[in-house]
Amino acid sequence: MSRISQRTMDQIEELDLADFAEMLGDPLKKEGRHFFTYRNGGEKTPSLCITPDMRMWTAFGSTESGRNAISYYGYRKWNNPYPSGKDFIEAVKDVAQIAGILIEYEDGRKWEPTGYTGIPKIKQAPPMIPENTKKDNPTLDRYFRRLMNEFPIISAHKTHLTSEKRKMNDHQIQVRQYRSLTDNKQARYYAASKISKEFGEPEGIPGFMFVKGTSTGNYWTIGGKPGLLIPFRDISNHISGFQIRYDKPQIEIAVKGIENVKVHGSEQIKVVDGDTGSIMWDGREEQLPIVLPDGVEIISKRRWYGWLASKSDPVKGILKGTSSGDPAPYHCAVPTSILEKWRPGQSVQDVMDTSTIWWGEGPLKGAKRFPTTAN
Known about the structure:
Elements: H1 6-13, H2 17-23, E1 29-31, E2 34-37, E3 48-51, E4 56-59, E5 65-66, H3 69-78, H4 85-99, E6 103-104, E7 110-111, H5 137-150, H6 155-161, H7 170-176, E8 179-181, H8 185-199, E9 208-211, E10 219-222, E11 227-233, E12 239-256, E13 261-264, E14 269-273, E15 279-283, E16 290-291, E17 297-307, E18 318-320, H9 336-339, H10 363-369
Antiparallel strand pairs: 1-2, 2-3, 3-4, 4-5, 6-7, 8-11, 9-10, 9-18, 11-12, 12-17, 13-14, 14-15, 16-17
């Protein structure tokens, strides 16, 4: 049997994954550049993430992931993102049918999907966002530990950690090395400049970004919203990333009941119909949620946590950047008494019994689970 042509496979590779998932009937919730929907088997909160501009989907909380419509279709139909043999051929034909793509074979034969018009039913994925490849964890650890020297923790963040909600003490805060990312642009520039001179240009280090300058030329600095820096440690005590608890939550406006909308402003918000240009709603975030007379619902979501990361955006003058993940950092939480003697690069198995582990939902909750005197 003749092979399917590379031209056909390239067309399938370039399908917008969010658009494809929607054609399968999956409900999508947009958050920034990502779309969230439900994993197979059912769940209360959608945790399958689709990122069209990275050609990637990931089912968090399980091991399934993929980079094209075939893998997504295989996951939905057989719970297998990597179909092979007859299943692979079936998946390619079904994806082509759904997307309205002509299948061409290397021997010149062609297969037309039902209702084929020559115009795909699914849009093409957006351009890939160029990003530096993230460095290995030992390299990240060197840069991040040096970064922590430049940003001591501020009193407001100490107060939060010692509050009734967090219940930490000064010793825990010191040992766990929480830090504060300032909004002072000059301090960020100086920190990046010093670290670059000591260790070399921080390409591939999340949070560092190379930006377009004016009279002084292009330069390295540090991105991210100001907030509490929470170090993430791997099983060898390498700091492989930082989560930020923002000083001010990030406000995201979502509109239900209409697809093409644009949101403008932060203090005074305008929601505009993308098809007609008319203003659907004008007001402040505190007034939400609100349901308009035509049934359109406008809601707001406050996001307190994010990664210390950066991404290339030439329009904004960011020439180089590195995202937090693929894979994203994980955090190995240990008792404070163990962390005190755990050396960078040393396996966690060398300092404590790891025959039993706890799977938690956040680094601060993991820290609270282990008091200072825990064994």
